[in-house]
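User: I'm new to structure prediction. If I give you an amino acid sequence, what do you actually give back? Let's try with this one:
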Amino acid sequence: MSQIVIGRRFCGPPNSGNGGYVCGVLAKEIDGPATAVLRAPVPLDAGLDLSVQDGQVALTGEGGTLIGQGRPSAGAELPKAPAPISLDEARAAGARHIGLTQRVHPICFTCGTERAEGDGLRVFAGQVAGREPGVVADVWTPHEAFADADGVAPLEVVWAALDCPGYFAWVEKEGRHGALLGTMTGEVLRRPKAGEGCVIMAWPLVRDGRKETAGVALFSAAGELMARAHQVWIVMGPRPETAPAGKESASA
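Assistant: Good question. You get back a string of structure tokens that encode the predicted 3D arrangement of the chain. For your 252 residues, that looks like this:
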């Protein structure tokens, strides 16, 4: 068992850890595809216990409160990645990000518009022109502030970059705000280098009551698939109606 601290820099909500980042902290203890489940809000600037036993990872807080769990995945949940788009197309989509004109999550590590370069990831996913509603994208260029000793983005930072685009896929599709990341299954094939421009795309999959699932993919500028993830988001507030069968998927 080791003790870790999720610094305030890595917040999602103002007083809780960024879901994708914390899922990545769990996943980095596992070889290959991994599934991470968040069980409770993640305390910031507090000592947390990280344990690994028989391939299972657990993150616990004060009094042994279970915060998150990680386990190996066979990858069956991982979505088929869409055809990649160019950096220019992704950059144009990012300019349509709803958070640039509305106050959504301004201090979030991943999508916070008030976070400076080198402080947050500044992934502003917006609707892709010519694609079905909810297919969003942006360009992500990892800052050197997040590079490890080899000059590449750490795995937990890659998972964080994949986090919020899945949320905004559903915002664009249905226009409803308010959801928390519950489960994320991801696979990182290659981590990007600092300064390497990449394309992040996300798209809605299925909605069932309070659960909304999304697919996310990271591509190199040349179209190489670098990472992909399947997400389960839990909608907050009034329970939404389940959409009729056959109306759920958004092809990319």
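You can read the tokens as a compact description of the fold. Here is one thing that stands out. Confidence is low (pLDDT under 50) at residues 242-252.
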